[in-house]
Amino acid sequence: MTTSISLVDLKAAYRRLQTEIDAATARVMSSGWYILGPEVAAFESEFAAYLGVEQAVGVASGTDAVLLALRALGIGPGDEVITVAHTAVATVAAIELAGATPRLVDIDAATYTLDPAQLAAAITSRTRAVVPVHLYGAPADMDAVLAVAHAHGLLIVEDCAQAHGARYRGRMVGALGDAAAFSFYPTKNLGALGDGGAVATNRPEVAERLRLLRQYGWRERYVSDVTGYNSRLDELQAAILRVRLRHLDAENTARRRLAARYDAALAGLPITLPTARADDRAVYHLYVIRTAARDALAVHLRARGIGTGVHYPVPVHRQPAYAHLGCDPGSLPATEAAAAEVLSLPMYPDLLPTAVDTIAAAIRDYYGATGANG
Ligand SMILES: Cc1ncc(COP(=O)(O)O)c(C=O)c1O
User: What's the gap in Å between 196 CA and the centre of ligand 1?
Assistant: First the structure.
């Protein structure tokens, strides 16, 4: 029998929720209202309630969510914004789209998230904000980030694109800073069937500015108060997201169970497993292991019908488009080491526990065959 286990299976979630999703999309299609309407308003209040924040504002993507959050906080040309290079390029792209200058710092090698000690060292007189990324579904060390940020008067925009529903020491991520950016790209823990995003904030004046910025800067129709964008969430995606939100906690629980199963099945091998702080609730957007034999292991798994991914193979400061940031090779050693060794194993709520066992057995075979020295 040939195995076929993909890194992610989006159709499985659709099939499981098809009755609810089809009813939601049919409702929108027959409503005659397709952009920024009642579904978006309902989703915004349901998502804000879920996060425990004052307001959520729907936008067109996660990239736009970071961009609009920064602009709504008044950040722009001349300002420096600190973030990591071990992230989706969108985090850094959005900082530049806002007109600000990204300052990239290294990660903590164990959690793959922003190293608070590096944050303090990178602050200059022009630093205005920090964008911690809750990567792979695991919260950044927010108490340390908040302490440094508050000591230096920095604004905080959490990048929650990979961490819907994650908790940091009992507190929901997305509620910890001045604003938080979410992506609803289909693979995300809370995924639409197209592009989408949202900004969460406890600051009403920031929410108000976001609502201007996402639609041409209009306060009233056809009159722009500020220079804005077209970054609207559409009604179909909002209706789908309302369905998906109702299942988010159960799906995150399924991800956590699968992660625990991987942890147990892979224990004792010469690979580094994800490390989560015991008092956090990580939501395993990705299940990422680490080994110097990453590429050979991926080939071995592929030959057995098992898909894997690398998030991310080239850190942002090493990508051609970001050479101008002047961040030399070797300047972010923990980031560069991680990029060479991380491997994402299949992870999605509908993944069968027996598939995890199959994947773990294939990984054990690899180490059995190669003398178990990584
Ligand atoms: C950490 C992170 N930030 C930002 C984004 C950007 O989101 P989007 O693709 O919806 O623009 C993504 C997703 O690609 C992401 O993973």
Answer: 10
